[in-house]
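2024-03-11 09:14:02 INFO worker-7 job=invfold-0412 stage=load source=structure_tokens
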């Protein structure tokens, strides 16, 4: 009887050990249990990771703009010389309604605009105006004044903190009254010495333009 009881106890112990060996846990070398499957920890990045930098472009400041109105092409040619020396951006000031190509008719239109103190509508606006610190403004002389379109341009923007540099072409009359009128149309601007070049001499004025710009000490 005792032998039978011992045999039954031995068989019970064997079955118990077999049942325990079916578990899924394994053990590390330090004796702590580790999951037998892949880690279930969160895959979200930790707070210590550096966030991605914004890819949106930042608007730069300190640029130079050369804005000009040219009817015959002389002022445009001078503006291109200024761009070559400064590396600035060109912007053509254009009326919403183009001026006539007939010179005699143009004289009448310009005279009437002056009499009316007109502000002709502009065809377009400067993009990123705030990115420019120095603005060259060029125009031909009409009846001893800037075309009224120039005043439309000047009065369309905030000039506080900006430097305005005028330039002009004509048949010999220079800036006329325009230099005295610029401060009223561009309040807050620092106005530097301008340059007038005779229209017929623009093609050979590159050295004169370069010397003038160098004397402005814009850097």
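2024-03-11 09:14:09 INFO worker-7 stage=emit residues=219
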């Amino acid at each position: 009887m005792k032998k039978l009881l011992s045999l039954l106890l031995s068989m019970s112990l064997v079955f118990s050990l077999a049942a325990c060996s079916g578990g899924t846990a394994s053990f590390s070398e330090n004796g702590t249990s580790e999951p037998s499957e892949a880690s279930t920890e969160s895959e979200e990045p930790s707070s210590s990771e550096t966030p991605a930098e914004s890819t949106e472009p930042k608007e730069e400041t300190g640029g130079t703009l050369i804005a000009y109105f040219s009817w015959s092409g002389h002022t445009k040619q001078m503006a291109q010389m200024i761009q070559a020396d400064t590396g600035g951006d060109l912007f053509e000031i254009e009326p919403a309604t183009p001026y006539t190509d007939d010179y005699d008719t143009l004289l009448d239109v310009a005279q009437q605009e002056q009499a009316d103190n007109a502000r002709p509508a502009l065809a377009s606006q400067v993009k990123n105006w705030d990115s420019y610190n120095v603005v060259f403004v060029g125009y031909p002389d009409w009846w001893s004044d800037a075309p009224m379109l120039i005043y439309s341009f000047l009065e369309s923007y905030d000039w506080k903190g900006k430097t305005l540099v005028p330039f002009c072409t004509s048949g010999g009359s220079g800036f006329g009254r325009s230099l005295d009128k610029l401060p009223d149309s561009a309040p807050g601007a620092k106005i530097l010495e301008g340059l007038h070049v005779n229209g017929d001499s623009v093609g050979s004025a590159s050295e004169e333009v370069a010397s003038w710009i160098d004397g402005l000490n814009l850097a």
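2024-03-11 09:14:09 INFO worker-7 stage=report msg="Helices lie at 2-20, 74-86, 103-116, 148-154, 178-185, 206-216."
2024-03-11 09:14:10 INFO worker-7 job finished
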